[in-house]
Amino acid sequence: MFRDFKAILDKAKGKGPFTISIAAAQDYDVLKAVKIAQEVGLIKSFLVGDSNRIKAMLGDLNMGGLDIHVLHEENQDKAALMAVSLVRSGKAQILMKGLINSSNFLKAVLHKDEGLRTGRLLSHLAVFEVPGQDKLVYLSDGGINIAPSLQEKKDILINMLLALNSMGLDNPNVAVLTANEQVNSKMPATLDAKELANLSLQGAFPPGIVEGPIALDVAVSIEAARHKNIDSKISGKTDAFLVPNIETGNALGKCLIYYARAKMAGLVLGATNPIVLTSRSETVEGKLNSIALACLAS
Fold it and tell me: pTM of the predicted model, to two decimals?
């Protein structure tokens, strides 16, 4: 269990350095995060992109003495494929998006012959440090899959559990969120949640305690579970949430950020290696925390 992102960073530093490959790396905020990560011994890096711009930025940021390899490719699609190839060949363990459109970046990840496919769906894992809480909160998938089917939810759950296990959470408590705890044919999410919980009991997934259908109040409050007379193994101890659709995940995540003042980091899972894909508006701190998460998940 990690209390905050500092604990993630400290553990990752103890296991590093890891090597990261960045596609279209000519981005100041990405390079600022890379600088901090390298200075603390977390990573080494391959920077793929416009070498003239990258080297100028490295000079501006005083990064000349760090273990950095710059590879020139001005075409962004080709730069993405080159960055992916470094991971595919084992020269790097983590892939990161730089100054390139996300859809173009993911096309390289999913390239039929040269990509990082596993056969599972790609999914997003968001991690939140919430003030007043004694541990980080994990949520999937509020960023990639819009309305996942039961089979797609299986992949999302597998991706999340594999990542959490790799990070050191050996048997995480996972709530498959719905509006209530009753299985109702008019609420397909409850049917999916019950099936996922049953499959978990049968050993179909990586280690973890998976419960569903379960509402948010019961997942986070043992008092709510008692009030509703619900017998739950994870109530008040939930580590991670599997949401039924992207609207739920997006709204829950933004509520944590804007109302609870949570800090967020995230990863793309389901490829052979962890992928750092943050928005242009993400802070340098958020990018650094996402890199640290990727190091542990790798």
Answer: 0.94
The dihedral sign for the CA sequence 108, 166, 143, 194 = positive
- pLDDT band of 65, cuts 50, 70, 90: confident
Beta-strand relationship, 123-129 and 137-140: antiparallel
Cβ–Cβ under 8 Å, residues 177 and 244: yes
3-state secondary structure of 43: strand
pLDDT digits (tens, 9 = 90+) for 219-272: 999 999 999 999 999 999 999 999 999 999 999 999 999 999 999 999 999 999
- Sign of the dihedral defined by the CA atoms of residues 56, 58, 61, 64, in that order: negative
Contact 16, 93 (CB under 8 A): no
Residues 6+ apart with CB under 8 A from 176: 153, 157, 192, 193, 196, 197, 210, 211, 212, 213, 214, 242
